[in-house]
Design goal:
disordered N terminus; 12 helices; single chain; alpha/beta
């Protein structure tokens, strides 16, 4: 059989050809699905958000436990399949389907999110969920394994990065289980992992845009010392511009001393000059941002 035909057959289920460019890899292992639902600890009073339900394998398990399931799906073919699956059953009234791109639609209230998400939208979707209000209890999500390990990485881990710090600022994150590629139809090219995300409520009292500005800068060269990063002319000029804007908006007298000297003094006086972003934890970054802000130095 020609390879193209063979691959096409493998990507079909119930007459539907899955679109790999949309990240359509349907979870087929019932034991994995049961484990995901169990880890989410769904209650009979819960409204559950599912993203990309596909043909409904995971959806049916969620409907068995939840008060209501809201499924967001962009593919009309999948919506037709899922609608057929619940039609005439006790679950029909418990399922609400929203057709659209999950990154563009306004998400309704939900208690928990459980999903095998398209891997190509992992980062924007994660932060859309974390910015959702009111707060949800938890999300149990299937990610590409390397992305998942970045989410949970700790200081000094090889995969520790801006994504790790930003996610862990806003949520408690835990790796739950690894899932091999053969548990999907069609199998993806990468291994997968399930992660639980529990938003911190209330969130830390920090301006996230400014926080991300600092973290992005620090992780631009995470193995360089902070002293080396903040000595760069482009960085000093950016901070100088931000400082002048801040002073103008807040009607504060401008300190004429060189920005580079002020920045390096903050770093050296507080033992940050020789430290590297790859080994700083959340408290270190929070303290560093506060020290800069006390001197009217900002990152947004």
């Amino acid at each position: 059989m020609p390879k193209a035909v063979k691959d096409k057959d493998r990507a079909r289920h119930h007459g539907i050809e899955f679109d790999k460019t949309r990240g359509q890899h349907i979870l087929k292992n019932p034991l994995i699905m049961d484990a995901i639902v169990e880890k989410a600890a769904i209650k009979s009073t819960d409204v559950v958000l599912e993203i990309g339900p596909g043909t409904g394998n995971l959806t049916m398990r969620l409907l068995e436990r939840a008060k209501k399931v809201i499924a967001v799906e962009v593919d009309v073919r999948m919506i037709v399949e899922l609608t057929k699956r619940v039609q005439g059953t006790q679950y029909q009234k418990k399922l609400q389907i929203i057709q659209g791109d999950v990154l563009k639609v306004e998400l309704p209230f939900f208690d928990a999110c459980v999903a095998n998400i398209p891997y190509n939208i992992s980062s924007p979707l994660t932060f859309k969920l974390l910015s959702h209000r009111p707060f949800f209890r938890c999300a149990v999500l299937m990610y590409q394994q390397e992305f998942a390990m970045r989410l949970v990485a700790k200081p000094a881990d090889q995969l520790y990065c801006r994504l790790s710090v930003n996610t862990q600022l806003l949520a408690d994150v835990a790796h739950l289980l690894k899932v091999g590629k053969n548990n999907f139809r069609p199998p993806p090219k990468v291994e997968s992992s399930v992660v639980r995300i529990q938003p911190k409520n209330p969130p830390p009292p920090v301006n996230f845009v400014e926080w991300d500005g600092l973290v992005r800068l620090c992780f631009s060269r995470k193995n360089k010392t902070l002293g080396a990063i903040f000595r760069q002319t482009s960085v000093v000029e950016m901070l100088e511009d931000n400082y002048k804007t801040y002073c103008a908006v807040n009607k504060i007298a401008v300190d004429s001393s060189p920005m580079k000297e002020r920045v390096l003094k903050i770093l050296t006086d507080n033992d940050f000059d020789t430290k590297r972003s790859a080994k700083l934890d959340l408290d270190d970054f929070l303290r560093l941002l506060d020290l800069f802000n006390q001197s009217a130095i900002h990152f947004s």
